[in-house]
């Protein structure tokens, strides 16, 4: 195996616990992902050492969930979670247990976890995997299965409805039948979960791999209709077959999600999902099916949806801009130099360009137009897009102009000419001002 500093750190902490005669195991994602030959993101340890003992042994640990017996130890880049074995009491509010009992038996600790593949223990020193829930069989069969009675487990903590979809999508696993039945039946209970937690799961479903499958599962479970009704409306909305041989707006959107690059920036992933959200409300038939103004309507809806989900302002702004500008590539061949440079100057143009690539793939179109846009963009250096100003306000005053709103007009006109390639020196720019603008006006 490759050297993994996080694993080494986790092993050191495990050794300290073992030294103090405690039971200690790797648990959860790190065991699952290693068995699947996937990169391990972070290491979680489970131990019979009670919380007070953890504080003694690791005085610098962060007490993230003191109430639940969870601490985090930071070692260089790595953050290792250490949790005392526990069982959870009755759940309140469909999210958290009233109280927990610390346990000395690891079996109790794995039974409170959500899915069998997330409940495997690994002896850190021998590598032996300890499986109290038949997780190894499910891992081999690529099945996501709730531990115990699925309906009870989803009712206890409704966030698990979305976690199930996230793991199934990311890992490409099937959801076991009884688990799926309970998920579908309990989908309406998702409204008990805070918007922030729902938002974070949606973001992860869109960016951690398997976004297409994730959205199909959201749809099939009924969660899409509840959480993103505007997206559910795309289903069955027809498109002109000459531009969209793939089918309706939903089919098109799923294709974009399928082609997302690995670990996409969140705004790009959100925009792939939302770019045509303005199509259902703008659908009309004249000479052919048309969606007049769908990018603007889509931008408006995108802002509303992302605000409802309480995304940070910067994520909303970027995503809205991506949706709003996604049709502008059609005009690129006809744009003059200045218009093209201003288009390329859009913030996050790299994501805008990538969304265009996805949009073409989603329409089963060749990528020639994308490649041409990429080439044009690459041939323009940064100083071509944002050339240093040739003239300042001071210069205008010297020429005899009085400061005021006209200054911006004049300076903008110079920049426009500069971007068009008509002006390249200060002298030319001053000459241009004198010819075009009246000192008295
Ligand atoms: P990831 O790679 O996404 O981090 P993970 O399996 O490590 O996957 P975490 O959310 O980091 O998942 O949680 C660590 C472990 O804690 C899980 O594997 C699972 O055993 C348990 N767990 C986390 N959240 C829940 C939950 N809501 N209900 C029950 N068990 C949970
Ligand atoms: Mg984890």
CATH class (first level) name of the largest domain? Mainly Alpha
Number of domains: 4
Unreliable runs:
none
Enumerate the distinct ligands: adenosine-5'-triphosphate, magnesium ion
- Could you name the CATH topology of the largest domain? Hypothetical protein af1432
> What amount of the residues lies in strands?
5-15%
Query: Distance between the terminal alpha carbons, to the nearest Å?
Result: 76 Å
From the coordinates shown, what is the CATH architecture of the largest domain? Answer: Orthogonal Bundle
Number of helices: 24
Mean pLDDT: 94
The radius of gyration is 28 Å
Biggest sheet, in brief?
7 strands, mixed
The backbone outline, from C-alpha atoms, is elongated
* Helix percentage range: 40-55%
List keywords for this structure.
single chain; 441 residues; alpha+beta; Beta Polymerase, domain 2; Hydrophobic Seed Protein; Hypothetical protein af1432; 4 domains; seven-stranded mixed β-sheet; two-stranded antiparallel ribbon; 51% helix; elongated; binds magnesium ion
Question: Could you explain the architecture of this structure?
Answer:
With 441 residues, the protein is α+β, with helices and mostly antiparallel strands. It has helices at residues 5-19, 29-35, 51-57, 106-111, 135-141, 150-156, 159-171, 177-186, 195-207, 211-221, 223-227, 229-232, 249-258, 266-274, 279-282, 294-308, 313-324, 337-344, 349-362, 368-379, 382-385, 393-398, 406-420, 426-436; strands at residues 24-27, 44-47, 62-65, 70-75, 78-84, 86-88, 91-92, 96-97, 100-102, 121-122, 129-130, 143-144, 174-175, 283-285, 289-291. It has four domains: 1-141, Beta Polymerase, domain 2, CATH 3.30.460; 145-227, Orthogonal Bundle (Hydrophobic Seed Protein); 237-385, Hypothetical protein af1432; 387-436. The chain has 24 helices and 15 strands. The strands form five sheets. Strands 3-4-5-2-1-10-11 form a seven-stranded mixed sheet. Helix 6 packs across helix 8 (177-186), helix 14 packs across helix 17 and helix 16 packs antiparallel against helix 17. The longest helix is centred in the first third of the chain and has 15 residues, at 5-19. The radius of gyration is 28 Å and the shape is elongated. The model has no long low-confidence stretch (mean pLDDT 94). The structure holds adenosine-5'-triphosphate and magnesium ion (MG).
């Amino acid at each position: 195996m490759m050297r993994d500093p996080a694993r080494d750190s986790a092993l050191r902490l495990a050794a300290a616990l073992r030294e103090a005669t405690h039971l200690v195991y790797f648990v959860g994602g790190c065991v699952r992902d290693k068995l699947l030959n996937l990169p391990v993101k972070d290491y979680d340890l489970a131990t019979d050492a009670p919380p007070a003992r953890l504080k003694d042994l690791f005085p610098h640990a962060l007490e993230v969930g003191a109430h639940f017996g969870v601490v985090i130890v930071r070692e260089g880049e790595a953050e290792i979670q250490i949790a005392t074995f526990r069982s959870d009491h009755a759940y309140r509010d469909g999210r958290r247990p009233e109280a927990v009992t610390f346990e000395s038996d690891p079996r109790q600790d794995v039974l409170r976890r959500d899915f069998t593949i997330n409940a495997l223990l690994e002896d850190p020193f021998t590598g032996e995997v300890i499986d109290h829930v038949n997780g190894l069989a499910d891992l081999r069969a690529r099945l996501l299965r709730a531990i115990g009675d699925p309906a009870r487990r989803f009712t206890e903590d409704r966030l698990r409805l979305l976690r199930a979809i996230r793991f199934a999508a990311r890992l490409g696993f099937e959801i076991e039948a009884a688990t799926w039945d309970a998920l579908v039946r309990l989908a309406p209970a998702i409204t008990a979960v805070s918007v922030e937690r729902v938002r974070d799961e949606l973001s992860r479903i869109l960016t951690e791999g398997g976004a297409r499958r994730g959205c199909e599962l959201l749809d099939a479970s009924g969660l899409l209709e509840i959480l993103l009704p505007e997206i559910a409306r795309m289903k069955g909305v027809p498109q002109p077959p000459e531009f969209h041989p793939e089918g309706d707006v939903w089919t098109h959107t799923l294709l974009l999600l399928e082609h997302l690059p690995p670990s996409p920036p969140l705004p790009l992933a959100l925009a792939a999902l939302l770019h045509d959200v303005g199509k259902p409300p703008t659908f009309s038939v004249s000479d052919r099916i048309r969606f007049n103004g769908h990018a603007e309507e889509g931008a408006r809806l995108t802002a509303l949806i992302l605000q409802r989900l309480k995304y940070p302002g910067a994520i909303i702004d970027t995503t809205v801009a991506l949706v709003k500008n996604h049709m502008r590539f059609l005009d690129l061949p006809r744009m003059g130099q200045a218009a093209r440079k201003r288009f390329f100057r859009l913030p996050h143009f790299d994501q805008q360009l990538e969304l265009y690539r996805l949009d073409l793939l989603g329409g089963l179109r060749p990528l020639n137009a994308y490649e041409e846009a990429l080439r044009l963009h690459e041939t323009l250096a940064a100083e071509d897009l944002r050339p240093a100003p040739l003239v300042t306000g001071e210069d205008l005053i010297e020429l005899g102009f009085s400061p005021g709103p006209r200054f911006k007009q004049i300076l903008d006109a110079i920049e426009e000419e500069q971007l068009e390639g008509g002006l390249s020196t200060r002298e030319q720019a001053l000459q241009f001002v004198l010819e075009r603008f009246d000192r008295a006006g």
